[in-house]
Specification:
GO terms for molecular function: GTP binding; GTPase activity; metal ion binding; rRNA binding. The longest helix has 17 residues. Helix 1 packs across helix 10. The protein is built from 10 helices and 14 strands. Bound molecules: guanosine-5'-triphosphate and zinc ion.
Amino acid sequence: MTGTIIKSTGSWYVVRGHETGELYRCRLRGKFKNKGLKVSNPLAVGDGVEFDLPEQSEGAGVIHTIAARRNYIIRRSVHKSEHAHIVAANLDQALLVVTLVSPATSFGFIDRFLVTAEAYHIPALLIFNKSDLYDEDTLDYQRQIAGMYASVGYPSVLCAAESGDNVAAVAALLPGKTSLLSGHSGVGKSTLINALVPDLDLKTAEISAFSDKGKHTTTFAEMLEVEPGTYLIDTPGIKELGLVDVPAAELAGYFPEMRALLNQCRYHNCRHVHEPGCAVIEAVDQGRLAVPRYESYVSMLADEDNRH
Ligand SMILES: Nc1nc2c(ncn2[C@@H]2O[C@H](COP(=O)(O)OP(=O)(O)OP(=O)(O)O)[C@@H](O)[C@H]2O)c(=O)[nH]1
Ligand SMILES: [Zn+2]
């Protein structure tokens, strides 16, 4: 049988079976190695697996094959001696919840998230929340920002999670996909999840009761099941996305609007800061490349220089 891992305790996995639609508790057969990947966990939520239900196993499954991953996000350990671990695999999109007031999310944070998503090859979208708190000027401003991000490949939705206003537009992004939901503390992520996942507590309780069977186990990771096949992964912020140490020379390649210009710079190793004949600087000067995006690039480049 085949299925998707929706919860992991490190030794047990909860798998949603594709053929039956049922939940299965599974173990991993024998030793598994992640080829060329130094991580502590062989399997993560979102992984596709093949498993058997042997007789005399009291309904517990045995995973014997892991499907190739389309992508995955890892979290580095705080202790250097420990391996990183895979937070989740096979993400279809990353949604970043942001706010323009109460609190205002900075461009720096947004662009860092988008660069990280590019590095992971995960399409990213922005959810502007708390629209009920925006006055006319802020709404104008929001349209400008949304336009700027849309023009470089990041669509967005404006909503108010608390009142439910336009949450339907967010819900429409989800069916059949695995979505990562991120955002600074206080932007309304929990409120949004509660609006998106009806009976959230019931569903979570059901899966816990099923997987823990009265034992005290720590959950390493869990996907919220909006419905079978539609999943949300809740993470507190960019640290979870573990902004991979993007080498300075590659950084501009993770800004889609800069990518197309890179081979037009006079110097092949142009850093696009004050080099003569730089196509990126020219685009900024001519208003073809948004200043806030360029400023984020320069600031990330400086951070990268300071690290080395
Ligand atoms: N006015 C307004 N307030 C909202 C909206 N959505 C959430 N809030 C409020 O914003 C505050 C933070 O919301 P949470 O859902 O707890 O935010 P969070 O992002 O999950 O924060 P953490 O739990 O710290 O990660 C709460 O007081 C919510 O009531 C909204 O659409 N409009
Ligand atoms: Zn350049």
